Amino acid sequence: MAGGGKHSNDSALKKKSSTVPQHEEENPLAIVVQPDKDAPIISSYNDRIRPLLDAVDKLRHLMITREGIQLPTIVVVGDQSSGKSSVLESLAGINLPRGQGICTRVPLIMRLQHKSIPQPELFLEFNGKVVNTDEEHVSEAINLATDEIAGLGKGISNTPLTLEVRKNGVPDLTMVDLPGITRVPVHGQPENIYDQIREIIMEYITPEESIILNVLSATVDFTTCESIRMSQMVDKTGERTLAVVTKSDKAPEGLVEKVTADDVNIGLGYVCVRNRIVGVPVLAQRLVQIQAASIARNLPAIVKSINEKLNLNVAELKRMPNKMSSLSEAMTAFMQIIGLAKESLRKILLRGEFDEYPDEQKMHCTARLVEMLNQYSDELQRNSGSNPAKNFLMEEIMVLEETKGIGLPNFLPRSSFLTLLQKKMNGISSIPISFAEKVWNYVEEVVISVIMQHSDNYYQLQLSFRRAGHNLIAKMKDQSVNWVMEIVEMEKLTDYTCNPEYLSEWNKLMAQQDSFMKDVLTNEERPSIVKLEGFGEIEVEKLRKYSHILQQAFDMKMRMTAYWKIVLKRLVDCMALHLLLSVGNLVNKEFEIEIVNELMGPGGGIERMLEESPSVAAKRLKVNKSIELLKKSKEIVAKIMDKIGSYSD
């Protein structure tokens, strides 16, 4: 604190620290001085600071923060009526808007620049325009600009307003003044005014590059200040927080103890000011020092971020499709899409490679097809009869009775075997057809997904690509279903296999015939249940009355059992081979033909590729703007880095 209050307090404050520290690393907790009242604020100015600040201000003017690059910023926060406006007026040497309630309704970027000119130069920048003003009318100009940005009334906005002040004697500083914190809305303010202000403040003070200038009134308990609570949330150690204590003449008692106790962790120290003059030069000097140190500390990281983001945007632009101006360019792009899509389909449908879709299990196609084939095989087995011992031989006996004719006895009519075979085939005939449809529905999802991915930049053709995909799969599905129906009909038509497993299995089963017939027909104990390997326990009492054809029925049962295993395996094996052939034809031949016919045929409209989609056009515009902004930023930081290099020379 500088001057004012009781004599004992003044002595104590002077004893604590009567001069500004010469070494930044000493950084005492409290900076309390009483300089010569005529000492100019600009006494702390260093010619090397201005270029650094100009560079950062140019970056800020380019709105580089929109690219995610944070800039060193002094952010001024304080509770309402903390004296924040008085501090800023003292630093800038101008009058700011005054009144009841919130005076600052938008973030006010104050750029102060020392210039040895006869008349001060003041102007405002907002909404893309520049408004000149002067010291007499600056307050009114700020109010008018604020009304234009935030609307009439007492609402707030996060759209910034820049005030540049060029005059002799001001410190070279750039600060962002934020709305004063209030919890209770006054008439005309929204009910959530506190939340709106808090959101703006947190946005500005959260980045590690921000220096928080916390304005506190000496008349209040610092620990209760809302601005302290907010700054502590993002700067717990206080290493980037500087406190300015205002109205120190109104509460001098215990002020030294208050700032030296530092109950609220102010790492950059306290500056006490009074009457808009006393202590302000110290504050100006301290802010210039902190600002210069922050810029110098963060500049290398800013340079690195600019280069990294520029490279990323250039790479992104290169990845985007070229804007085409001729049909030949469109044709080249079209064939490239087909080529890339075919290669993706070869990978996932034929070769089992899924490096393009590592985390999408649906696109690991060969594995999914194997799973579906196994499920198909299991379903065929389940639907072939769950209990082979139930009504054992009765179906065979009934068929033999109905197909008997005049001829030699103990002769197994082939018609009876085919009758049973056809009945069993009818029981499962829908399963292969359903499986074929299921597989092609899955393949359709995959094909459409791949086509859409590779044609993502050509929205105007995606409908045609999708239609071609649907038509292609529909054709392939019909072919498969027709083939499956033929296979089913062939299995119904006749009984044939050259597989030696048939005879081997039949002989194995027939080896039990003699013992079975003995137990059923000649065993004096006449057991009611006979155990038969492969079938379980058989109830045989009702079979004894069919002794005349029991042996034929047993033979036919064993023949059908052995042959049915061959049939089921054949249905699975043939289906697997058919799918491999069909999917291979789809990828290697049919896919390209169908797409080309769709796009090159009448109404296909490949020329529509010359029209860039709104999303791609918007993305291209955004990327180009980012590249332009980052290139300008790179030039700015390159110049300042060269200048810094010249200092070291």
UniProtKB/TrEMBL annotation:
GO cellular component term of the entry, any: cytoplasm
Superkingdom of source: Eukaryota
InterPro entries linked: Dynamin, Dynamin_GTPase, Dynamin_N, Dynamin_stalk, G_DYNAMIN_dom, GED, GED_dom, P-loop_NTPase
Annotated spans, Disordered: 1-29
Keyword tags: GTP-binding, Motor protein, Nucleotide-binding
GED domain boundaries: 553-645
Any GO MF annotation of the entry: microtubule binding
Classification via Gene3D superfamilies: Dynamin, middle domain, P-loop containing nucleotide triphosphate hydrolases
Pfam families listed in its UniProt record: Dynamin_M (PF01031), Dynamin_N (PF00350), GED (PF02212)
Every Dynamin-type G domain range: 68-330
PROSITE patterns recorded: G_DYNAMIN_2, GED
PANTHER family (alphabetical): DYNAMIN, DYNAMIN-RELATED PROTEIN 4C
Name of the molecule in the record: Dynamin-type G domain-containing protein
Organism: Fagus sylvatica (Beechnut)
